[in-house]
Amino acid sequence: MNSLKKKEKVPITTMPSVDEKCCYNNPLGCFFCIMKEPNSSIRSNRIKNYFKKMSLIDEDQELVLVLSGLWTMAMSQPNDKELPSLGIFECMTSLINKGINHKSWLHKNQNIYIPYYAAHIIGSYTMNNVDFAIKALDCGVLVPLLDLSRGNMTWVEQRVAIRAIGHLASYDKTFKDVAIYEGEIVKLAMKLASTCLEDVYKEFVGLKDLNMRLKYHCDLLTRGVGGLEMENRKAEEWASQLQCWSLHLLNCFAIKERCLNLICDQNFLKDLSEMWGGLANDTSPGGVGLVRVLCYNKDGRRCIAESKDVIKNLCTRYKVLEVVSMCLVDLVELRTLGGKSNVGNTITRTLLDDFKQRKVKIKNNGVQQVLEEMWGLKVDRKKREKNMSDEILEEKRVMVSLMKQQGNNSFWLGKIEEAMMKYSEALDLCPLRFRKERIVLYSNRAQCKLLLGEANDAISDTTKALSLSSPTNSHAKSLWRRSQAYDMKGLAKESLMDCIMFVNCCFKMDSSMKKNMRIPYYAVRMINKQMESTWLFKNAQLKTFADLSEKPNHQPHDELQISHKEHINVRGTRILLQKKGFMEGLSSISEEHQLIEKGDIISRRNKKAVFTQSM
């Protein structure tokens, strides 16, 4: 922050509620009384006059209250032409300029809120209306918005300023005016996207002394309602929005192939591959969306292909096959996904298209082997089983059941490798149409691979089981086992998503069992662990601790670490365990390593825990 230092806090009273509207004695009259004027001509003239002289009002509480009301109207009626036609953009521009250029006025009582609301109002009116965007630019809003984006105040004002500039840049009719400052805007957006999480953590979330948090930040975040947990949650959402809106602004330039030489900086592309949307903006594609746009351009594709941290070998189809085949092969038996049918068949056709004729172009032996196996499964084997009689099918079903039971017995005796071989033999024999039997075999084999430390193979088998399940991704034990496998590989986000889906499956049981259902303790533990690992500010926190540890004679912020960990655990546990409880049963994979030793017999309780329902 350039002009607002946290240690030099100014006295700020509690932010007034929008509902606390009352008349103020000033020559312009009460704005809310003016809005109630039944005569449209009189009302318009008085509103126009009010906007012209609004920046001269001395009563700071009235200003903030009026702006809060205007923001509410802009959010609820963004296409209403009345206020934009009467000078609201000129008014907001003058208020932002006054806040930036007159620090003594800005720090007087509640005036500190004014630039935030003014920028937010501009962004709300220009969000979906190109005519309002044109009018706003004609009124000179861009320069003061840029001043806020440069960090002349704080990250809170940067968030709404970048949002507004992004709306102005998204229309063809207004882009050329924004592009006058394209070099600076692109650099600002790149910097904000890369550093905003670290900045918000250092300036707000990670402050050891909560009294150092700017009070007006807390008020804006919580709207005067909620405590520490609400402040942290909203700060996380707003930081995510600031990053997503910065990426949207960059998209506006990239889609027009402007400033690609700046955006395709290799250091930024590395950061870009780690940015993910969806926390507060459900439709935001995050960094991947911008990568896709960059690939529309030849130079952009070249830069992406040269970045090992983004996407490897994206230039040609056959190089892509070498990357994705090892993963997509597990999905070839998907029936439906996201409302689309025959997904597995589509994947199969894509990967096997002209495979027999053109496989020479694929240099990777592992990929060639995978595609050969896929051909054998989806083409050759399917043809052999197509005319198989009911008697033969029933014989195979019985044999598969027997082999599965042999595998179970071996597992219970601690002979994990032998059990895995039995499940593999059963899978080779089991007809493709017996989907339920194959789900269990894949899932049980994945459990063996987990215990043998083969995380990649376990992920592959559980993915195959989940692809066979109906509906897709509904086999609870496979979700839990894949969550453990992802955890072994350090893939916290993937592990968290599977664990949450596992908990959902636990509660999608028949009504007679729901009454006694409890969330398994091991799932709660996994979710708490992964929520801490996937916390939006995790990298910023680690970097802050690293920086502090390098300073001489400086003690690490142990209290901050404990505070954050407790915050994550309380947050996760409260979401999952309110009015619920714990259920003992499945152990974690690390515990199962201790339980299963070669030649030892697993206890009856652990047998049931590992194999109930699946067997």
Automatic annotation (TrEMBL):
It comes from the Eukaryota. InterPro entries: ARM-like (IPR011989), ARM-type_fold (IPR016024), ARM_7 (IPR058868), TPR-like_helical_dom_sf (IPR011990), TPR_rpt (IPR019734). Residues 28-264 form the ARM repeat N-terminal plant domain. This is ARM repeat N-terminal plant domain-containing protein.
